[in-house]
Amino acid sequence: MSARRLPPLTALRAFEAAARHLSFKHAANELSLTPTAISHQVRQLEDHLGVRLFARGARRVDLTPAGQELSTALRNSFDAMARAVEAVRPGTKRRALVLSTTMAFASRWLLQRLPRFAQAHPDIALHLHTSDEPVDLQSGAAQLAIRYGPPGYPGLNCVPLLASRFAPVCAPVLGVRDRDDLHRVPLIGFDWFRRDANTPDWPLWFERTGLAPLPRQLRFSDEVHAIQAALAGQGVALVNLALVAEELRLGMLCQPFGPVLAGHGFHIAWAQARDDDPGVAAVRAWLLEEAHEASAAAVD
User: Fold this and answer.
1) What is the pLDDT averaged over residues 111-126?
2) What domains can be seen in the chain, in order of their start residue?
3) Rounded Cα gap, residues 87 and 96, in angstroms
4) What does the pLDDT average to over 134-150?
5) How many other CB atoms are found less than 10 A from the CB of residue 124?
């Protein structure tokens, strides 16, 4: 077997932490380094790969499409290594559980809340599995999943977690105030993993407004990239408001007009055989509490 051609592990760790936090400062705190050291290691990794992983702004960094792809793979790999290490560590009492969810929900809603779970449940090591393909919960590959779509999964129990509402959002710097402004700014769209007649995308939005449809000038493979493009001031994106609630609250994005389209909700799903599993129940209760607080904050 040929040797693996990998960049330095220190650079990969620095990038994964910076990508997870979208902050060199927070990554530095996690790894007990300086922000300058994190920046140097990320730049070293970019030079090694020959591709930019971050779009660097004055006050924040955002992942490029290549960075998003590498971040997801590294996070899953490091989580798998952590589970393996915990499994062989003598005297380990922490219960390891795997929560599967979509890449957009993980990066835009769940990741920033995980430290609160770790603090509230130090006896449970909660690991994320991110994929837009549904995981087989019956096989034990994951114990719970958060999925976007209509309720009802054969052989599984599920409860509603978050409602979905889609509306146009953009950076305030664009000065978009009414629908006429859509003629002078790009429309940002993304590819849906699954579609139906009520998929809340730009064609449906124009149909509901009665306006003549305009072409999407920027198109991305997933919603995360569409949101990042909107934050960067590249146009108006039609996205799930639950995934940009913090940016709307901070004024980094604005919702200039409607209509707002209803989408399918997010649901927690688990195998019926795990109904009495206390660890699964703890994760489920925590998720519902976080969702309740997020919904209350959005109303305020």
Assistant:
1) 90
2) 9-67 (1.10.10.10), 69-161+265-299 (3.40.190.10), 164-263 (3.40.190.10)
3) 9
4) 87
5) 19
